[in-house]
Amino acid sequence: MTAILAQAQADLPDLREVVGFSGWQDFVKSASPSAQLPDVRPDDPVQIQYTSGTTGFPKGAILHHRGIANASSFMAEGTGLEQGGVWVNAMPMFHSLISGLVMSIEQEVTGPDSLFNDSLSSSHSLLHKIE
To answer: What b-and-e string marks burial along 24-43, b requiring 16 or more CB atoms within 10 Å of the CB?
Structure first.
């Protein structure tokens, strides 16, 4: 992935930073609390999510701010999530956080059965299906 990104960077003059998972903590620590955040519009891209290629060659799907915000709101509304409830969510973390939820990251999930059984034996009120 690093080699592919290095090739693509030559064609992306507006790309300012690339942060990998292993560098995330350092990236967060380097942020200035007084930094001015950019103005974004609902139709501005927020993320390129790469498909697995199950139905063809893998490709990047461009997600926009409006779609991300709506997806989390629709999911919370559609599942009947109530304030104070606990939700096990297999979606990307942003979907939970944008809905105002508190995240608890499991240290180890050994498979679907352990996730399901652990969720049933705890205080979780909703186990969101894995899509």
So the answer is: eeeeeeeeeeeeeeeeeeee
Separation CA 92–CA 127 (nearest Å): 15
Among 118, 112, 131, 124, residue whose Cα is nearest residue 88: 124
pTM: 0.47
Residue 4 tokens, joined: 């592919």
**CA 46, 32, 97, 120: dihedral to nearest 10 degrees?**
130
Q: Is 28 among the domain residues?
A: no
Q: How many domains does the chain have?
A: 1
**C-alpha 56 chain-centroid distance:** 23
pLDDT per residue over 51-85, tens digit each? 777 788 888 889 999 988 888 778 778 877 777 77
